[in-house]
Specification:
Elements lengths: L13 E7 L15 E6 L2 H14 L6 E7 H5 L10
Length: 85
């Protein structure tokens, strides 16, 4: 590839998932079979929007928690930085 060709943007994949915790004092899920896999998103901004929607929809259940996992950090540990563009 020559320097004049644009380089494709690197995918920074993020997984959003959640479930009911067995205790408020840790991160141990009550039922692994009942985990809610919300989806995989191409950037932090869209993952955060999905996370926020799920977290707000379950606000009445104190044991329900949703998380964002930075898959790109697992796939390429050398890129330990966050890109929120």
């Amino acid at each position: 590839m020559s320097n004049s060709e644009p380089t494709p943007n690197k995918q920074l994949l993020h997984l959003v998932f959640g479930g009911e915790l067995s205790s408020l004092k840790g991160v141990r899920f009550r039922d692994l079979d009942a985990l809610d896999i919300v989806g995989i998103y191409p950037d932090y901004k869209s993952a955060e929007a999905a996370w926020r929607a799920k977290a707000q929809a379950t606000v009445d259940n104190a044991h329900m928690r949703y998380f964002i996992v930075h898959l790109h950090r697992l796939l390429d540990p050398e890129t330990g930085t966050e890109n929120t563009d």
